[in-house]
């Protein structure tokens, strides 16, 4: 596997490294923030040709917070005591994670000028843990595409290959992490929107079990959906997960304790790990297949038993299943939210609403529940006796940065009727009590990273992070992209 040997800048250091540096007073939060601000100025560029990872920046306020955090570390070093979990770390939040008094537009012309009344629970918890929100990241309209571009915010590009998308919908988050613009980032996931950009940007993205991360909106009741963390390492992802997860008094769908870091040492000796390269019939690109097998061999050499897993799935069936669901929940919601501005929508949004509506005419909501149950039962059967399941994150190596893919997507093996069939993430939104984390597996020939998913049994977060941590230690990541 080819890796990029460029040494990381201060802006690319992990959260765990930075926290140690802050505690020993060898690094200050302001130094890190200023390095990342400088990188944004040098490399983020414009909305058409640049990386374009942010909807807005909050640098002035962030610099004040970073200076205050540095002073607090000096006080703690002198007087003793424990710093809040994220004190002094930069976090770029997805724009949909509202910040009171700032915009909450979600890339939609219909929401232009809309202001958030309260902080999203993710934002609330980051602030209370001492995190510094210095920027807000781009997404496609209503976070509903696997590329990241919109008429409102322009095109977001992959730092590894500007012609390629960083994925979506949390594409701005993945791009910002890869480029060294932030230390941590928030994301969301209804069909892979955290894991897809993690896979394409050489970063780590975690989809927690449904309800583990609280939210306030009515659509948070959609059981496919969830918010979560992204970072450059498994440990950093676990750190942010530990802060934003847990029961919230105002979200009775949320559950679990607070401040419990799920990361365990990455020892896989004696574990039984399932391996499915295709999850049925996904047309997995040769480079992705080889990188996934490399991960499996590394786990096997470390003492795990790799068990081949067969699943009776097809991409067409999975697409029909998720669009039946969307046809009764997300599609109608989007139609309501965008009413009167249809002529201003991105082509992919118009297509999504139409596809969801068509699926709803073919399948009732009760039909949809039955389709969900069948996939869940088949996954449960396949995972019996296993400690986790390993599979690729996406079947294709890249998507075009500005692509709409209205006619599906061509792969070397066959044409896929819907481009969402190119990603191997949505079955685990159907089975949304399963924790799933995407970690890097290598690079493809086009210079874009590839990823693998670790799928855990329902609610078994610790084992999922344990296997992911082992992969990270055994298989070197792609490194740092060369930016010009």
Automatic annotation (TrEMBL):
<keyword id="KW-0808">Transferase</keyword>
<dbReference type="GO" id="GO:0016740">
    <property type="term" value="F:transferase activity"/>
</dbReference>
<feature type="domain" description="Amidase">
    <location>
        <begin position="50"/>
        <end position="464"/>
    </location>
</feature>
<dbReference type="InterPro" id="IPR023631">
    <property type="entry name" value="Amidase_dom"/>
</dbReference>
<dbReference type="GO" id="GO:0050567">
    <property type="term" value="F:glutaminyl-tRNA synthase (glutamine-hydrolyzing) activity"/>
</dbReference>
<dbReference type="GO" id="GO:0050566">
    <property type="term" value="F:asparaginyl-tRNA synthase (glutamine-hydrolyzing) activity"/>
</dbReference>
<comment type="similarity">
    <text>Belongs to the amidase family.</text>
</comment>
<dbReference type="InterPro" id="IPR036928">
    <property type="entry name" value="AS_sf"/>
</dbReference>
<keyword id="KW-0436">Ligase</keyword>
<dbReference type="Pfam" id="PF01425">
    <property type="entry name" value="Amidase"/>
</dbReference>
<protein>
    <submittedName>
        <fullName>Aspartyl-tRNA(Asn)/glutamyl-tRNA(Gln) amidotransferase subunit A</fullName>
        <ecNumber>6.3.5.6</ecNumber>
        <ecNumber>6.3.5.7</ecNumber>
    </submittedName>
</protein>
<dbReference type="InterPro" id="IPR000120">
    <property type="entry name" value="Amidase"/>
</dbReference>
